[in-house]
């Protein structure tokens, strides 16, 4: 009888160890992001990159912010072992000058089940609004027009630089310049040829995209220019970011291996 109890206890220990070893683990690239000093007004965002370093899929079931001024976004799909994802944190700076330090509580089936992320920074008070441009200034302004406002790269390797080309036309009365752009991923740069677009002339805008996060991505790019006739021009970039394009599933057709497209 003692031998039976001994073997039962041994089996329980082995089973418990097996259950402990089979687990998902979320490893964040960093747990705190400092925005530094930002101007009051916009919603500022940061994407926390996370990798499943365990041996079981992980599903993030909830991300709870410490206040209503912080908005989290995350993928509901399972994060497979060795794969990456992002948890996006947005902070609304409007009406909130001063220092801030906010927490995000991550709940998942990983070990541990609860993890914390933090965002902090200092919001400078909004200065008195500049006077709106006069009707004459608007009428004489440069005016940026895009022939298309979206581009889908399809499948792209993580870290691969790909380029989307757009045509810009200046339908205004002054020279047009594009002096920068904004994107939440900070993974898009631009090149405008020529750099100065004369009234009535066109130019080629190249957006160079360098994705660093796997999964289907939608990036909104806002162009900063001297066009004061309306809201800033925006472009939407889409991509299915994969680890390696060479690793495609294949199917046998007439004894030949044909990759899925």
Automatic annotation (TrEMBL):
Annotated localization: Cell projection, Cilium; Cytoplasm
Protein's name according to its UniProt entry: Archaellum component FlaG (FlaF/FlaG flagellin family)
Principal location: other
CC per GO annotation: cytoplasm
Signal sequence, start to end: 1-22
InterPro entries noted in UniProt: DUF1573, HYDIN_VesB_CFA65-like_Ig, Ig-like_fold
UniProtKB keywords: Cell projection, Cilium, Cytoplasm, Flagellum, Signal
Residues annotated as domain HYDIN/VesB/CFA65-like Ig-like: 142-240
UniProt key word Membrane: no
């Amino acid at each position: 009888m003692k031998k039976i109890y001994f073997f039962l206890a041994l089996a329980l220990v082995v089973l418990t160890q097996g259950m402990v070893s089979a687990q998902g683990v979320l490893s964040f690239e960093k747990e705190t992001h400092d925005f530094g000093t930002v101007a009051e007004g916009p919603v500022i965002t940061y994407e926390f990159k996370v990798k499943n370093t365990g041996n079981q899929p992980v599903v993030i079931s909830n991300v709870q912010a410490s206040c209503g001024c912080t908005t989290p976004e995350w993928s509901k799909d399972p994060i497979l072992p060795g794969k990456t994802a992002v948890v996006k944190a947005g902070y609304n700076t409007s009406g909130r000058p001063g220092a801030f330090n906010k927490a995000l509580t991550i709940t998942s089936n990983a070990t541990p089940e609860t993890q914390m992320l933090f965002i902090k920074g200092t919001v400078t008070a909004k200065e008195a609004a500049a006077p709106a441009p006069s009707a004459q200034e608007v009428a004489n302004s440069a005016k940026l027009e895009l022939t298309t406002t979206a581009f889908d790269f399809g499948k792209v390797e993580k870290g691969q630089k790909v380029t989307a080309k757009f045509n810009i036309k200046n339908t205004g009365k002054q020279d047009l310049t594009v002096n920068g752009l904004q994107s939440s991923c900070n993974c898009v740069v631009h090149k405008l040829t020529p750099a100065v677009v004369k009234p009535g002339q066109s130019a080629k805008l190249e957006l160079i995209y360098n994705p660093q996060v796997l999964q289907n991505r939608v990036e909104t790019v806002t162009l900063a220019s001297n066009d004061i006739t309306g809201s800033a021009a925006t472009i939407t970039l889409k991509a299915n970011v994969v680890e390696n394009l060479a690793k495609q599933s294949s199917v046998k057709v007439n004894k030949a291996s044909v990759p899925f497209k």
